[in-house]
Amino acid sequence: MSRSDELFEEARKVVPGGVNSPVRAFGAVGGVPRFIVQGSGAWIEDADGQRYVDYVQSWGALLFGHARREIVEAAVEAARRGTSFGAPTELEVRMAERIAAMFPSIEEVRLVSSGTEACMSAVRLARGATGRAKLLKFDGCYHGHVDALLAKSGSGVATFGLPGTMGVTPGATADTLVAPYNDVEAVNEAFSALGEQIAAVIVEPVAANMGVIPPEEGFLDGLRSVTAEHGALLIFDEVITGFRVAAGGAQELYGVLPDLTCLGKVMGGGFPCAGFGGRRALMEQLAPSGPVYQAGTLSGNPVAVAAGLAALKLIDRQGPYPELRRGAETLVEGLAKAFADAGIPSAVNRVESLFSLFFTGGAVRNHADAGASDHGRYARFFHGMQGEGIYLPPSGYEAWFLSTAHGDEAIGRTLEAAQRVARAIG
What we know:
Largest sheet: 8 strands, mixed
Strand content: 15-25%
Strand order of the largest sheet: 4-13-12-11-10-5-9-7
CATH topology of the largest domain: Aspartate Aminotransferase, domain 2
Helix content: 25-40%
């Protein structure tokens, strides 16, 4: 029995399912999760001393790889001054200033501790500012484990949401509408019927929680137009895309500006730090300036903010996006060739350094397409690659993430392994 096996057995006695976030349990691929003891750059090491090239990178938070020196040093220095105050610090101001400078739609930002908290708060602000109750989201987009956002679609197009998990009541999702991703017509139909009741549309501008699915031409522009026409707000959940696909997120990449933006992951440099922001008049509706209440003891935590500021300064200094794009292009082209050579139908969706693999012969443009791909084959590919020392997301519905630490050696090793594993599972 490996040390990871032993730890998993121990964990299941005291932690539900043995993990503190469900995807970590390997339920989608089978087997026992690896317990990680350390990471450096593109690599992680498990409790048994096995090393892996890591394409999870803390689910996208680590733009510069594990244990980047400048980020670690900033966090350590901040921790020496005190780990939490529950009072304002100068670093919070500097973080907000930098975010506002990088994101074209943001004038003010409120810091929180997680992407879930950012999305929950942005939705509350949208409802408070518009005086409306209903919210439209997209099937397969994940905005954290907020009751109203854990809604799945019904049997038609743009249906009222149904509870997506036990513990979420029908009442909690009664004001949530769910439409297919990339379907502007479904959104227009919803607004034609209920436009004066819809407070906001919330969307991942690049879907990355059903695998990576890019927005089709006209989709984001269509959302911007219909919300503006009906006096609703457009919320971009850029928890994943923010600072990853561009310094100013997907809104910079696609030239569509939302009313509110939710951020997380990269902005914390590997620490729990998130935020949501928008134009000043809207953000001033938040307490203590306005009537919409939101608060958090650890919001703007000085250690997390120091680490995040170090990460954002590295973005300014290094301009990492061309390097990340080149690495992702090399990987995607190499993976496509490996599967073609093995006679395996596949599609690899990519936006900048954000990409994912689907074992399917057709295009993947929404949640239904992602669900129809061969997830059993993905599980076999996952375990084959793990045996080769390559650590992939343990679900075919998840994105892969590159860091600047993934150099030619790591990428070359990955593609050589993919060729061998593709032949084995073909």
